[in-house]
Amino acid sequence: MSEHHGRPSGVAFLMQHRRIKGVPAHVAANTNYTANQVYEHRSEDDCWVTYRGRVYDITQYLDWHPAGKDILRPFFGYDITEACNVAHSWVGIHKMIEPLHIGMLQGPPRLLQGYDYDALRTRDLRRGSPA
Question: Which family is this sequence assigned to (predicted)?
C-alpha cells in the first residue's frame, strides 16, 4: 500500500474503494438530505459532508486522508466545496469520494463560518504541517 508518512495515500484509497459497501448510485441519486440532516453526522464514527450539491458519508475515508483526519475535523457536517477548491484544485476529489456518495443535498449547504481558507493554501497537506 502506498503511504504518506504512515498514512495510506488517496491512490491506495481508490484502489481499495471496491471494498466499500456504499449506497448504489441509483439510490444515492434519488435520496435527498438537508444541510441540517448532514450536520447531525459530525463525529469520527459517523461523518457526513456535502460537496457540490451531493452528500457523502466520509467516515470510511477519514483514516485515508494523506494529511490526516484532524485537517478534516472542522468540516464534519459541513460543505467542503470551498476547502477542496482551495486545497485540492488539481485533484479529482469527486472521483475519490464518489464511492461514499449517499444522496443529494436538498437546499443550500451549511457553510463553515470564520474558517481561514487561506491557511489551506500555505499548508503542505500531504504532511499536515505548515509549508
Answer: Belongs to the cytochrome b5 family.
Distance CA 61, CA 102 (A): 14
Alpha-helical segments (H) within 6-116 = 10-16, 25-28, 35-39, 81-87, 93-97
- What pTM, to 2 d.p., does this model score? 0.80
pLDDT digits (tens, 9 = 90+) for 96-120: 888 899 999 999 999 999 988 887 7
Task: Tell me what percent of the chain is helix, strand and coil, each rounded to the nearest 5.
Answer: 40, 20, 40
Amino acid identity, position 130: P
Q: What is the largest CA-CA distance in the chain?
A: 42
14, amino acid identity: L
Full set of structural domains in the chain with CATH: 3-110 (3.10.120.10)
